[in-house]
Specification:
The chain is of the alpha/beta class. It has one domain (4-132): Response regulator (Rossmann fold, 3-Layer(aba) Sandwich), CATH 3.40.50. 41% of the residues lie in helices and 20% in strands. It contains 5 helices and 5 strands. It has helices spanning 14-26, 39-51, 71-78, 98-106, 120-132, and strands at residues 4-10, 30-36, 59-62, 88-93, 113-115. It has a 5-stranded parallel beta sheet. The longest helix is centred in the first third of the chain and has 13 residues, at 14-26. The two termini are 12 Å apart.
Amino acid sequence: MKDIRQVCLIEDDPIAVLLSKKFMQLTGAIEEIIVYGNGKEAYEGLKSRLKEGKQLPNLIFLDLNMPIWDGWNFLKEFKKLNILSKPIIYILTSSTSQCDKDKAKNFGLDDHYLVKPIDLKKIKEIFKKEVESGN
C-alpha cells in the first residue's frame, strides 16, 4: 500500500484519540497524524496551514459531538475555504441517529459515515480505498 502522508483526527475523547491513532499507526501507511480537540481548533489549525503554504492532510476523520464547535460547524465552515484539493472527510462518530445520517448525506458524506469504535480492519480498508482511488 502506498503511504498516505498525513491524516487529521478531529476528536475530543482522549480514549478514542488513543485507539484511532494506534490503529492508524499499525497500518504502517501514514507519516503523520494531526489531532485537534474540537471543530474550531481544527478549522483554525487547517486554515493556518493553508496560509503558511503547508499541505493539508489527505484524510480527515471527524467526530460530530464535540465542545466549542461540533463536527457540523466544522464542515459548514471548512467547505467555505478556497481549497483546490480538499482532503477526503470521514465522519467518525458514536451517533447512530438517522438525523445525523441525513445531515451527512446533505454534505455528500453518507458513504463516509462510520460509527465508533473503529477497528484496524476498517482503517486499513479506508486507507486502501483512498490510495487506490488516487487520493
